Amino acid sequence: MATIKECRSALSRLSDNLAHADGEVRGAAALDRSLSCRITDLDVTFTGRLEDGRIQVADVHDGPPQEKAQIRLAMTGDDLVALVDGELNFAKAWATGRVRLEAGVRDLLRLRSLL
């Protein structure tokens, strides 16, 4: 089972990947939205912002998100690490319920290129 430290590191790597992406992916990540990533097996939530193509983690706290972020992710720590490492396909994980993504319709349409 991935640790909180490994999950934070994975989010940092994901942020770096988005910041260095080209074209459509960079455009999709260039939102300014509040973000939460709930790690279900650790019962923690990372909160912050997706801003200028980077994920800025502001806080981590126990339990579910305290406020409803504009973009909400939920998954196990192992799945987060596997996604960032390229070992788990996001679209398949989302389709099978291993990863949950909730956002407004407009944001989902923009984020689809990240899938």
Describe the fold and architecture.
The chain has helices spanning 4-19, 23-29, 77-84, 90-95, 105-111, and strands at 32-39, 44-51, 54-62, 71-75, 100-103. It is α+β, with helices and mostly antiparallel strands.
Task: Please give the structural blueprint.
Blueprint: H1 4-19, H2 23-29, E1 32-39, E2 44-51, E3 54-62, E4 71-75, H3 77-84, H4 90-95, E5 100-103, H5 105-111
Parallel strand pairs: 1-4
Antiparallel strand pairs: 1-2, 2-3, 4-5
Indicate the low-confidence ranges by residue numbers: none
Q: What percent strand?
A: 25-35%
H and E string:
HHEEEEHHEH
Strand order of the largest sheet: 3-2-1-4-5
Helical content band: 25-40%
Oligomer: single chain
The structure class reads alpha+beta
- How far apart are the first and last residues' alpha carbons, in Å? 24 Å
- Average pLDDT taken over every residue: 89
Please count the beta strands (DSSP E, at least 2 residues each).
5
Key attributes of the depicted protein:
115 residues, alpha+beta, five-stranded mixed beta sheet, 5 helices, 5 strands, 38% helix
Please outline what is shown here.
By secondary structure, the chain is an alpha+beta fold. 38% of the residues lie in helices and 30% in strands.
